[in-house]
Amino acid sequence: MPFQNASFDMCVMNDVFEHVSKPEVVLKEVNRVLKPYGKVFINSPPYFHPYGAHLTDLIGIPYVHLLFPEPVLINAYKKLTLETKSAEKRINLRFGIVDNREQITYINKMTITRFEEIIRNQGRFKAILYKLIPLKKPVGFLLKTPFREFFTKMLVYVGEKN
Fold it and tell me: How open is the CA angle 94-79-76, to the nearest 5 degrees?
């Protein structure tokens, strides 16, 4: 980012973290531009959220990314976009070529487990708040089980620069 070191008191990443291709690099840069004891706020829906594939503008089926392989989703999305005026823009936004194959590149497929690992390994921030928000209150107890990935609406993290 084109800012001097220690320029900001806070960095807010509202529904952003699941879209950055290199989250570890982003956190390193956030650390650079934050003042000492600066705060970082991250909230993000995890990949296994019912609509974690971020294709709901045309495919409104919950957990569709768990039901079908990625090439099927890409082909279905492309066919559905043919009926829209913004087909090319939508396709270019969501898909790209990685390792010689077309993939969903609009998101980084960030899971709760991966997020926790990144935060644990980066060592730049002390957690002030970390909370998983359930899809609905009645399923909140599932957030304490291995099924938490599927029943979390949003992860919320506030960290303080070390």
Answer: 70
The string of pLDDT tens digits covering residues 81-107 is 998 999 999 999 999 999 999 999 999
Token pair for 87 = 């087909």
- Residue 36: which CATH number? 3.40.50.150
**Residue-range definition of the domain harbouring residue 85:** 64-104
Q: Tell whether 85 and 71 lie within a shared domain.
A: yes
Give per-residue pLDDT as tens, 54-85: 999 999 999 999 999 999 999 999 999 998 99
List b or e across 89-110, with b for residues whose CB sees 16 or more CB atoms inside 10 angstroms. ebbeebbeeeeeeeebebbbeb
Please indicate, yes or no, if residue 82 is contained in any of the structural domains. Answer: yes
Quick check: 114 pLDDT over 90?
yes
Amino acid at the residue 140: G
Same domain, 73 and 149: no
Q: 51 exposed, middle or buried (CB, 10 Å; 0-12, 13-18, 19+)?
A: middle
